[in-house]
Amino acid sequence: MKAEEFDAKFKNGEDITEFIHLSNAHRPRYEQKRINIDFPIWMIEALEHEVKRLGVTSDSMIKLWLAERLEKQLLLSKRKQ
User: Which end of the chain has the smaller Cβ count within 10 Å, N or C?
Assistant: First the structure.
């Protein structure tokens, strides 16, 4: 199937799932890459307290906080341009 035909089916609200190979799907710029970070003990203790309070994982909390900070910095950078 050509891309134009696929796009037309999608725009018309047709079911296109049979044409998608989800095993090959990925979200550009959202691939995972593992890094190691050393934190001071006081940060780990504060993080553990917060994740226990919220009932989430340390990974998700760190990602959320980092994403919020990066989004804020990106907005500030765009305003300065």
Answer: C
34: amino acid identity, one letter: R
> CA 60, CA 21: separation in Å to the nearest integer?
28
Q: How far apart are CA 47 and CA 37, in angstroms?
A: 14
Our count of domains for the chain comes to 1
Question: How many residues are given for the chain?
Answer: 81
CA distance 80 to 26: 33
Rounded Cα distance between 7 and 14, Å, is: 10
pTM: 0.61
Question: Tokens 């989004």 sit at which residue?
Answer: 71
Residues 15-64 pLDDT 10s: 998 988 888 888 888 888 999 999 999 999 999 999 999 999 999 999 99
- Residue with tokens 């190691």, as numbered in its chain: 36
Expressed as residue numbers, the domain containing 63 is 3-80
